[in-house]
Specification:
By secondary structure, the protein is α+β, with helices and mostly antiparallel strands. The chain has one domain. It is built from 2 helices and 2 strands. Strands 1-2 form a two-stranded antiparallel sheet. The N and C termini lie far apart (about 35 Å).
C-alpha cells in the first residue's frame, strides 16, 4: 500500500498486482475474509514518449 501511494505521489502510473488465487492472508489466519489480501507486486509505468504532452 505504501509503495503504491509513494509511486502515485511521484506521478507514476501504478496499480497493485494481486494474487490470481485470491490469497486472503487475514482469512487464512482466522480474521474476517476480504480484508488482508496478499499483493505480489506493484506495476509501475509512465506515459509512452509518443503520448507526452509537448505543448
Amino acid at each position: 500500500h505504501l509503495a503504491h501511494l509513494t509511486a502515485r505521489r511521484h506521478g507514476l502510473t501504478a496499480r497493485p498486482v494481486g494474487s490470481w488465487q485470491q490469497a486472503d492472508l487475514g482469512a487464512a489466519l482466522g480474521a474476517p475474509p476480504g480484508r488482508d489480501w496478499v499483493v505480489h507486486g506493484l506495476a509501475l509505468g509512465t506515459r509512452h514518449a509518443d503520448e507526452e504532452n509537448t505543448t
